[in-house]
Amino acid sequence: MKFTDRLWPKVEHLWDSYLDHPFVKGIGDGSLETEKFQHWLKQDYVYLVEYARLMAVGAEKSPDLEAMGMFTELLHGTLFVEMELHRKFSNAYDISVASLENTEASAVNTAYTSYMLNHAQRGDAAVATACLLCCAWSYNYIGKGLSGGDGYNVSNPYKEWIDMYAGEEFTDLTQTALNLMNRLADGKPERELQHLEEIIIKTGLYEYMFWDMCEQREEWPVNI
Ligand SMILES: Cc1ncc(C[n+]2csc(CCO)c2C)c(N)n1
Predict the structure, then answer these.
(1) 60 vs 124: CA distance, rounded Å
(2) Which residue numbers delimit the Thiaminase-2/PQQC domain (predicted)?
(3) Band of residue 223 on the pLDDT scale cut at 50, 70, 90
(4) Atom 11 in ligand 1: which residue has the minimum CA distance?
(5) What distance in angstroms lies between residue 137's CA and the mean position of ligand 1's atoms?
(6) Is the CB of 215 under 6 A from ligand 1?
(7) Is 210 in the pocket of ligand 1 (CB under 6 A)?
(8) In this structure, which long-range contacts are made by residues 7-15, counting pairs with CB atoms below 8 Å and at least 24 apart in sequence?
(9) Residues 101-126: tens digit of each pLDDT
(10) Which of 19, 21, 62, 175 has most Cβ atoms within 10 angstroms of its Cβ?
């Protein structure tokens, strides 16, 4: 059995809770307030900068050229496909590229990226892949879930967002991340597989917290 097949029953319930989250539902039916979407765009942009570093760590720790190529494919997809779409969306939502780049990461955002980078720096390439997996995989799952929903139509202002994450390009990137995970998990002892699983579940919980943070437009608890 592939490693990612045994993971699925453990994350399924958590991932279905994303589809019930008010922020995700708001994207699905088009009712999400613009200010909340702008908060997501800004926080996500600086999140993706740290996420790109994570893939660079994975490339550096790769055991072979094939893994290195897969990490750099994901890195390229983040920097030049996903972040480019964020820049395009921001233009439509009155946010300048400078203000995207200068966003201060919120508490949850900082905790999430620090968690991933800490594990990736301490672990091997399989650990770095476990850190990045949920992120790519869960957005593709959400995009596909929303594109099959009632609110998916031309009048939904977030249709392009849904199309982007459900589309072929992101489905291919998700498949690359899954293949990389299975390749690097192959032959590992059970104790290490459990460690990878724990990271995937924790990052899945951080994903939920990220939606919550955007729904509440949270930054830090006190303004300094
Ligand atoms: C908090 C957060 N989690 C996941 C993604 C989605 N995502 C991040 S990297 C990647 C694959 C290559 O770009 C995908 C789909 C996001 N944007 N923000």
Answers:
(1) 10
(2) 8-214
(3) confident
(4) 136
(5) 8
(6) no
(7) yes
(8) 7/197, 7/200, 10/197, 10/200, 10/201, 11/134, 11/200, 11/201, 11/204, 14/201, 14/204, 14/205, 14/208, 15/138, 15/141, 15/142, 15/204
(9) 999 999 999 999 999 999 999 999 99
(10) 62
User: From ligand 1's centre to the CA of 135, what distance in Å?
Assistant: 5
Q: What are phi and psi of 200, to 5 degrees?
A: -65, -40
How far apart CA 205 and CA 170 sit, in angstroms, is: 21
The percentage of residues in the chain with a pLDDT greater than 90, rounded to a whole number, is: 99
pLDDT tens digits along 18-43: 999 999 999 999 999 999 999 999 99
How far apart are alpha carbons 115 and 154 in whole angstroms?
38
Active-site pick, 82, 131, 134, 207: 207
ipTM: 0.96
Q: Which residue has the tokens 């897969």?
A: 70
Percent of the chain at pLDDT above 70? Answer: 100
Domain range summary for the chain, segments of one domain joined by +: 3-216
For this structure, is 207 an active site residue?
A: yes
Distances (CA, A) of 168 to 29, 30, 143, 192, 203: 22, 22, 11, 32, 24
pLDDT in tens, 177-195: 999 999 999 999 999 999 9
